[in-house]
Amino acid sequence: MLKVEGITKRYGEIVAVDNLSFTVAKGEIFGLLGENGAGKTTTFRIIMGLLEPDSGKVTLDGKKIDYDLSSKIGFVTEERSLLTKLTVLEQIEFYATLKGMNKKDIQEKLDYWLKYFEIPEYKNRKIKELSKGNQQKIQFISAIIHEPKLLILDEPFTGLDPINVKLIKDAIYSLKEKGCSIIFSSHQMEYIEDFCEKLILLVKGKAILNGSLQEIKESYAKKTILIKGKNIDIAALKKVKGVINVEKIRDELKVSIATKDVASQVFNIVKDADITKYDVIDASLNEIFIAKVGEVHE
């Protein structure tokens, strides 16, 4: 288990991380969200032992993260950190050796992952000769080849097509099933909703949301109603107190409401029309992210 307890980090007058606490259990995928400059990168560096917090502490399985324990961590950075003049084999051997692996195990596992990603012929190709998508696969392999206890993924799907996104998703789920603790960060909220059971939203280094994805979505007051049908009185819908917006998207109406209670009033307006669909759904994580970050900046 990763345990982050009250960490704070300042750069002069700027508080990059402000009394941040969370835990990531074995076999759990945890979302760390925030706009650019929110403190995510500083948090990652503290977790990996590259920075010391001004206060607070970080432990992995009850131990402070030092040089020896850092070999149990894998990290996929948003910016590629590959040595482009090396071959794929040389690159992986370099990283895996630093993580304490021997050459025999490196060869076996590299062959497995290259076959998994359908690029075995690239083993002796230089990194710079690979496409951006294939470079991203090599970066992912370098982060997980030693089967880390903790894996940090910062925008891991950059440059990948849907087929390769699925391959990496399946690999992440496989690591989860083996008990790896995973921190996932992305600006693409659909990936967070797919993966994460719990999450934190950082704004200016401080957690403004912290909890399970389901609880966060259920507790957010604003909801959306999707309606499909004929002869719907749109003007009457717009007059309902608590209706924020009515938008037509293809053959559906998207009605944004302030609270779930407004749904019954909307239903009273449309119940006598020719309705084939009436769904009240929670706000998307993207909507919640925009609203919560906006509140802090107001």
Distance separating the two termini: 37 Å
Number of helices: 11
Placed side by side, the strands forming the largest sheet appear as: 6-7-8-3-9-10
Task: Indicate the CATH topology of the largest domain.
Answer: Rossmann fold
Overall number of strands: 14
* Secondary structural class: alpha/beta
CATH class of the largest domain: Alpha Beta
Low-confidence stretches: none
Descriptors:
298 residues, alpha/beta, Rossmann fold, Alpha-Beta Plaits, 2 domains, four-stranded antiparallel sheet, 11 helices
Plain-language structure description:
This protein is of the alpha/beta class and 298 residues long. The protein folds into two domains: 2-212, Rossmann fold; 221-282, YebC, transcriptional regulation domain (Alpha-Beta Plaits, 2-Layer Sandwich), CATH 3.30.70. 36% of the residues lie in helices and 31% in strands. The chain is built from eleven helices and 14 strands. The chain has a six-stranded mixed sheet with strand order 6-7-8-3-9-10. It has a four-stranded antiparallel sheet with strand order 2-1-4-5, covered by helices on one side. Strand 1 (2-11) and strand 2 (14-24) form a beta hairpin. The longest helix is centred in the middle third of the chain and has 16 residues, at 162-177. It is globular and about 70 Å long. The two termini are 37 Å apart. The model has no long low-confidence stretch (mean pLDDT 91).
Helix-strand layout with pairing:
Layout: E1 2-11, E2 14-24, E3 29-34, H1 40-47, E4 55-60, E5 63-64, H2 67-70, E6 73-76, H3 88-98, H4 103-116, H5 132-144, E7 150-154, H6 162-177, E8 181-185, H7 189-195, E9 198-203, E10 206-212, H8 213-219, E11 223-230, H9 234-239, E12 243-249, E13 252-257, H10 262-270, E14 274-282, H11 285-297
Parallel strand pairs: 3-8, 3-9, 6-7, 7-8
Antiparallel strand pairs: 1-2, 1-4, 4-5, 9-10, 11-13, 11-14, 12-13
Helix pairs in contact: 3-4, 3-5
